[in-house]
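TEACHING EXERCISE
Course module: macromolecular assemblies
Task: Read the component lines below, then compare them to the predicted structure of the full complex.
Student: A.B.
Group: 4
Components provided:
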Amino acid sequence: MGPFFHLGLTHLNRHSLAPDGTPASHILSFHGHIYDADLAPVPDAQLELWQADANGEYFDREYAARAGAKTFTGFGRVPTNENGEFHFTTIKPGAVRSRSGGATQAPHISVTIFMRGLLRHLSTRIYFPADPHNSADPALHAIPADRRDTLIARASETEANKFEWNVVLQGESETVFFDL
Amino acid sequence: MADIPQYRRPEARSQPDYLWPTYVSSRKRAPKKPLILLPHSLSEVTGPVFGDDAVAATDSDLTTQHDGEPIGERIIVCGRVLDDSGRPVPGALIEIWQANAAGRYRHKNDQHAAPLDPNFTGCGRMITDAEGNYRLVSIKPGAYPWQNHANAWRPAHIHFSLFGAGLLSRLVTQMYFPGDPLMAHDPIYNSIRDDRARQRMVAAFDFATAIPSHALGYKFDIVLRGPDGTPMETTR
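Instructor-supplied answer key:
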């Protein structure tokens, strides 16, 4: 989408997905970088985030009617800065139950990535470290075991509720991207 | 019985490859490992929902966002957003951005030595109506040079970003103008290998959309992925 997308898309930037009034202890903070094949940071990318609420429910028009206007929508949009870094805050999504008795999905954030040089957007996901649902998650299972770690955020050892998740576009440590 | 709507996957040649070496910026940013086929789940068939409050009335008329009128050829672009079964997509958020008539974006990183227009920002938003219709008033963007190869110029284009029913329908594309000689030389336009699919990025000149003595008209329909249904014959 070229180098000038900020012109048309910045108005919808959403760095905070947590609904108003969320206790501070429930707010998770994510940050990371996007790197190219040379591991150079990408300063002109945009990430869109989509996730379920704490109960594993996705926002839609019925949800909005039920919950009122000022509520969780599950949508975020964040650009990378001049250092190729992005950040956002959110709440932990719940596990997403299938509507037909299929496998339950582990808590995850769907990420869509756009930038100059990508003729189509990329789709990936962020998972949470040590979540008990991860071992049975169908998407993680579709990934070769040695690449699953690219989708699992790393919890900070020093700060509570702080996570790091990086994207490598190409190369040995390439992030897993999905064919939707 | 499936628990979610079923979406077809797009035909390969109708969508660009990630790695497209003639587009130099793709070389170090395109993934090289195979993408992992993801069975569709609730997480992909759902997606962001935007109400009419996401858009103000002036957002769809780029010629009235300042005190004066922008320089350039006034145009009206209208069309429908449809899914790949031919059904209209109501409530789709469309975001657009474009260069001014001189081929310059109002963006700090655009260094092209062409004038900015104090009366033109170059961004707009629309939500499709119940029949999937949208209408945009703007000025025709200029072509501009870029650094991809020697004497490289982008054909005139308007960037379109669309949110349909769910993540699977998300689309970012570009609209081109019919008859532009630069299209044949443009690696981005030519990254779509299927000729008919490529033509779907070119608006149709349309007198019925034009306003006599005021603005020229173009029709540009946009097809998003949608839940499976009976395919309708494509008309273009």
